[in-house]
Design brief:
CATH topology of the largest domain: Rossmann fold
Largest sheet: 6 strands, mixed
Number of helices: 7
Low-confidence stretches: none
Helix content: 25-40%
Order of helices and strands: EEEHEEHEHHHEHEHEE
Shape: globular
Strand order of the largest sheet: 6-7-8-3-9-10
Distance between the termini: 18 Å
Number of domains: 2
CATH architecture of the largest domain: 3-Layer(aba) Sandwich
Radius of gyration: 17 Å
Strand content: 25-35%
CATH superfamily of the largest domain: P-loop containing nucleotide triphosphate hydrolases
CATH class of the largest domain: Alpha Beta
Number of strands: 10
């Protein structure tokens, strides 16, 4: 699904943040992306999501060399990838239901074609009773689950989660991990960026360890 070949990244004229990064993400796989704060995890997530272009090297997404694609061709690939941001990025003036449905509205879908899917997904993540409230009323864990539901509503083939348990307590972190495991069982490839070793130790999954600008793969 995703292939990095000797990818390097620098911002402006500064030193390389990432260098000679090579790895593959296959279908229906589960992996953690880890490393110390400032190691470049968020930059790597942005590269995978195709919202950032590498300074050098090759990134292939779903069989296509992204360096050969124009910016107008990238959105169709991004729609195959869901992202859960660390800061949630929910819109406070929209209800939980409206936030989750927003990606489908942007695509021009009629509400009658997706309402049942949004309601079912909100029930699945445990927000069936909270779909009509605004984000400021939600707890941190509820906001996180709403963000996950929004990332999933387009049925992505790959889900990227940037520190999804960084702002929740350990019991909720375990519940969110079980949610990601279930998503993977249903066929979605999952990449979780985290520095929480306690979370990673709960499941036998491949780790992409980022350090000194490089990625080491630990199976």
């Amino acid at each position: 699904m995703i292939r990095f070949e000797n990818v390097g990244l620098r911002y402006g004229m500064g030193p390389e943040v990432l260098r000679d990064v090579s790895f593959e993400i296959g279908p229906r796989t589960f992996q953690f992306l880890t490393g110390p704060s400032g190691a470049g995890k968020t930059s790597l997530i942005r590269l995978i999501f195709l919202s950032l272009r590498p300074t050098r090297g090759l990134i292939s997404a779903f069989g296509k060399d992204t360096s050969r694609l124009g910016r107008d061709q990238l959105p169709s690939l991004r729609r195959r990838i869901g992202v859960v941001f660390q800061d949630f990025r929910l819109l406070d003036h929209l209800t939980t239901y409206e936030n989750v449905a927003l990606p489908l509205r942007v695509l021009g879908r009629d509400e009658t074609s997706y309402r049942a899917d949004v309601v079912d997904l909100l029930k699945w993540v445990g927000l069936g009773e909270r779909m009509h409230v605004l984000p400021p009323v939600l707890s941190g864990g509820e906001k996180q689950r709403a963000a996950i539901a929004r990332a999933l509503i387009t049925k992505p083939e790959l889900l990227l989660a940037d520190e999804p348990t960084g702002n929740v307590d350990p019991p909720l972190a375990k519940r969110l991990l079980r949610l990601f495991i279930e998503l993977n069982r249903l066929g979605t490839s999952v990449i979780i960026a985290t520095h929480d070793f306690g979370l990673m130790d709960q499941i036998d999954a491949r780790r992409l360890v980022l350090g000194d600008g490089r990625v080491e793969i630990v199976d």
